[in-house]
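Your task:
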Amino acid sequence: MTFFIHTFGCQMNVNDSEKIASILRLRGMTPADRVQDARIVIVNSCAVRAKAREKALSFIGRLDPEQIVILAGCVAQAERQSLLKTQRRIDYLVGTHQFHKLDRIVDGLMRRREKGAALGFSRQWQELVPDSRSRNSAVTAFVSIMEGCDNFCSYCIVPFTRGREKNRPARYILAEAMELAQKGYREIVLLGQNVNHWIDPETGESFASLLDRLASAVDVRWIRFITSYPGYHDPRLIDVVAAHSNIARHIHLPAQSGSTRMLRRMRRNYSRVEYLKIITAYRRAVPGMSFSADFIVGFPGESEKDFLATLSLLRRVEYESVFSFAYSPRPATRASAWRDSVPAEVKRERLRRLQQLQEEIQLRRNHQLIGSLQDVLVMTPHPSVRNEVVARTETYRVVNVESVAVPGSMLKVRITAAGPHSLRGVEAAV
């Protein structure tokens, strides 16, 4: 019995797909290399933006009618039973809190192909850890520490697809991280919608304390954590990052807008000034600290002045990278009831301007690295160039290196060329 998982969305969705694959392997199923060779196709979906939802449903529409199709994840959770009526190719819906039931669901579908759904929320942490065979990388491992969100930002569907916040006990997190280090993983990424709001449900321990313990006990090259919410900033976290060289000098800190007025409309409980204070504090305490962020353009009520404030924030912070999107209303959110006041053509133009500015910033910053020596972690052989590998710096820059080093190797590289999205280098004599 073969299965194929197609994943849309964020790192948490990728990690969920790793868990799903592990569950199905333990049942005795085999992953197919190609979707057309699978008896069962699981589409793990993202509902954060309308385009991601459309991509998932379009993919399903192209599948063979003989294949059993399970729509899992956020779109299944958000739209519930209506999808079974409107999308004939979907056999079963599995929500974000029901992945642990997939082996039984698959067994039932194999015996009798009937439409159904498992969509209930649970406030209890469900302990699921993917086995090594099911992880996407042998170098970087995702470790879930919390799920869900209590913020209810006015644009965001996450509380309705992932539920309220629930936190994984520290003892499970530490055990998984230490096992991954023993298996040779070089990088661990702690995952959650609001990782810096994590609290141990058993002891009340804070995220700063957890990160300190992980950095002290787990022998990996870099520990990363995503996503941090600026409204939950704990100054102790900066001290922990500064104290440990194996915590990567790169943090994803979503801003969403550079305008305090728009942040208030978005129900983000911080201002532009408060956001910049966090950036400044990190850079004072941790030399070389870098940041990436998310931005939404064209949110209802966004004026040209508001948008220019966002551009000025990009110039001020000089992010390593940004993920930027034109606003699209999401069901059940507060903003979905508001008039979508920014015309589509204005949204597209603002998105183009933002992305152009960010590309200019990245190109200039990358050019400044030409001739420098960088420590890089080899992620994978280059997919199309012989004797070349794809690596990343501590600040998450992509570096294409002339090398035959195996994934997981640390290299000293001299940067020889730079573009806006990647660097090129050669191994340097040590």
